[in-house]
Amino acid sequence: MKPNPVGWFEIYVQDMARAQAFYESVFQTTLDKLPPSASSEGQEYAGGMQMLVFPMTQDHYGAAGALVQMEGVPSGGNSTLVYFSCVDCAVEAARVPGSGGRIFKEKFPIGEHGHIALVFDTEGNMFGLHSMQ
Protein backbone atom coordinates (compact mmCIF):
# COMPACT_ATOMS: atom_id res chain seq x y z
CA MET A 1 0.00 0.00 0.00
CA LYS A 2 1.24 3.50 -0.81
CA PRO A 3 1.52 6.18 1.92
CA ASN A 4 -1.57 8.39 2.26
CA PRO A 5 -3.71 5.68 0.62
CA VAL A 6 -7.02 7.55 0.48
CA GLY A 7 -7.36 9.05 -2.97
CA TRP A 8 -10.96 10.32 -2.92
CA PHE A 9 -13.88 10.69 -0.53
CA GLU A 10 -17.60 11.18 -0.94
CA ILE A 11 -20.06 12.52 1.62
CA TYR A 12 -23.59 11.43 0.76
CA VAL A 13 -26.38 13.96 1.32
CA GLN A 14 -30.16 14.17 0.93
CA ASP A 15 -30.48 17.93 0.37
CA MET A 16 -27.62 19.19 -1.80
CA ALA A 17 -28.38 22.90 -1.38
CA ARG A 18 -28.55 22.59 2.41
CA ALA A 19 -25.34 20.51 2.55
CA GLN A 20 -23.54 22.90 0.20
CA ALA A 21 -24.48 25.89 2.38
CA PHE A 22 -23.27 24.04 5.50
CA TYR A 23 -19.83 23.04 4.17
CA GLU A 24 -19.24 26.39 2.47
CA SER A 25 -20.10 28.16 5.72
CA VAL A 26 -17.98 25.96 8.01
CA PHE A 27 -14.91 25.93 5.76
CA GLN A 28 -15.36 29.42 4.27
CA THR A 29 -14.94 28.06 0.72
CA THR A 30 -16.90 27.42 -2.46
CA LEU A 31 -17.88 23.99 -3.76
CA ASP A 32 -18.09 23.58 -7.52
CA LYS A 33 -20.28 21.32 -9.62
CA LEU A 34 -18.32 18.28 -10.78
CA PRO A 35 -19.41 17.60 -14.36
CA PRO A 36 -19.47 14.08 -15.82
CA SER A 37 -16.18 12.89 -17.32
CA ALA A 38 -15.09 13.89 -20.80
CA SER A 39 -16.16 10.48 -22.11
CA SER A 40 -19.77 11.31 -21.25
CA GLU A 41 -19.63 15.03 -22.01
CA GLY A 42 -22.99 16.69 -22.36
CA GLN A 43 -24.71 14.01 -20.29
CA GLU A 44 -25.85 14.05 -16.69
CA TYR A 45 -24.78 11.46 -14.17
CA ALA A 46 -26.93 8.33 -14.09
CA GLY A 47 -29.96 8.38 -11.82
CA GLY A 48 -29.89 12.13 -11.36
CA MET A 49 -26.73 11.95 -9.23
CA GLN A 50 -25.27 15.34 -8.31
CA MET A 51 -21.71 16.05 -7.20
CA LEU A 52 -20.15 19.19 -5.70
CA VAL A 53 -16.37 19.00 -5.36
CA PHE A 54 -14.30 20.49 -2.56
CA PRO A 55 -11.39 22.73 -3.69
CA MET A 56 -8.52 20.56 -4.91
CA THR A 57 -5.16 20.71 -6.62
CA GLN A 58 -2.98 18.01 -8.12
CA ASP A 59 0.31 19.22 -6.59
CA HIS A 60 -0.55 18.84 -2.88
CA TYR A 61 -0.84 15.78 -0.65
CA GLY A 62 -4.19 14.65 0.66
CA ALA A 63 -7.41 13.34 -0.83
CA ALA A 64 -9.87 15.23 -2.96
CA GLY A 65 -13.58 14.65 -2.57
CA ALA A 66 -17.14 15.73 -3.11
CA LEU A 67 -20.64 15.94 -1.71
CA VAL A 68 -22.84 13.43 -3.55
CA GLN A 69 -26.61 13.19 -3.83
CA MET A 70 -27.82 9.94 -5.38
CA GLU A 71 -31.19 8.26 -5.25
CA GLY A 72 -31.15 5.18 -3.01
CA VAL A 73 -28.05 6.18 -1.04
CA PRO A 74 -29.03 7.67 2.33
CA SER A 75 -26.88 10.05 4.32
CA GLY A 76 -25.85 9.63 7.94
CA GLY A 77 -25.32 6.47 9.92
CA ASN A 78 -22.34 5.32 7.90
CA SER A 79 -19.15 3.91 9.35
CA THR A 80 -16.66 6.01 7.36
CA LEU A 81 -15.20 9.06 9.05
CA VAL A 82 -13.51 11.77 6.97
CA TYR A 83 -11.12 14.17 8.70
CA PHE A 84 -10.58 17.65 7.28
CA SER A 85 -7.21 19.29 7.99
CA CYS A 86 -7.40 22.68 9.70
CA VAL A 87 -4.97 25.20 11.21
CA ASP A 88 -6.98 25.16 14.46
CA CYS A 89 -9.91 22.73 14.41
CA ALA A 90 -11.72 24.75 17.09
CA VAL A 91 -12.30 27.53 14.53
CA GLU A 92 -14.21 25.34 12.08
CA ALA A 93 -15.97 23.49 14.91
CA ALA A 94 -17.25 26.82 16.24
CA ARG A 95 -18.93 27.49 12.86
CA VAL A 96 -20.82 24.17 12.84
CA PRO A 97 -23.84 25.04 15.06
CA GLY A 98 -24.43 28.35 13.28
CA SER A 99 -24.31 26.52 9.95
CA GLY A 100 -27.03 24.04 10.94
CA GLY A 101 -24.89 21.14 12.21
CA ARG A 102 -24.04 20.03 15.73
CA ILE A 103 -20.91 19.28 17.70
CA PHE A 104 -20.47 15.72 18.95
CA LYS A 105 -17.14 16.30 20.72
CA GLU A 106 -15.36 19.63 21.11
CA LYS A 107 -11.67 19.97 20.25
CA PHE A 108 -9.53 17.58 22.31
CA PRO A 109 -5.88 16.48 22.23
CA ILE A 110 -4.72 13.25 20.64
CA GLY A 111 -1.17 13.35 21.97
CA GLU A 112 1.68 14.01 19.59
CA HIS A 113 -0.76 13.85 16.67
CA GLY A 114 -2.45 17.16 17.49
CA HIS A 115 -6.14 17.75 18.17
CA ILE A 116 -9.49 16.73 16.73
CA ALA A 117 -13.15 17.71 17.00
CA LEU A 118 -16.06 15.51 15.89
CA VAL A 119 -19.15 17.12 14.39
CA PHE A 120 -22.33 16.30 12.46
CA ASP A 121 -23.38 18.06 9.26
CA THR A 122 -26.95 18.98 8.29
CA GLU A 123 -27.42 15.54 6.70
CA GLY A 124 -26.54 13.47 9.79
CA ASN A 125 -22.99 12.62 8.64
CA MET A 126 -20.28 12.73 11.30
CA PHE A 127 -16.89 14.06 10.21
CA GLY A 128 -13.69 14.99 11.95
CA LEU A 129 -11.66 18.17 12.09
CA HIS A 130 -7.91 17.79 12.70
CA SER A 131 -5.18 20.30 13.53
CA MET A 132 -1.73 20.17 15.06
CA GLN A 133 -2.47 23.09 17.40
UniProtKB/TrEMBL annotation:
- Can you say what this protein is called? VOC family protein
For this protein, the record's CDD domains field holds: SgaA_N_like
Please, which domain of life does this record's source organism belong to? Bacteria
- Residues forming the VOC domain are 5-132
Q: Which Gene3D superfamilies match?
A: 2,3-Dihydroxybiphenyl 1,2-Dioxygenase, domain 1 (3.10.180.10)
The organism encoding this protein is: Candidatus Thiothrix singaporensis
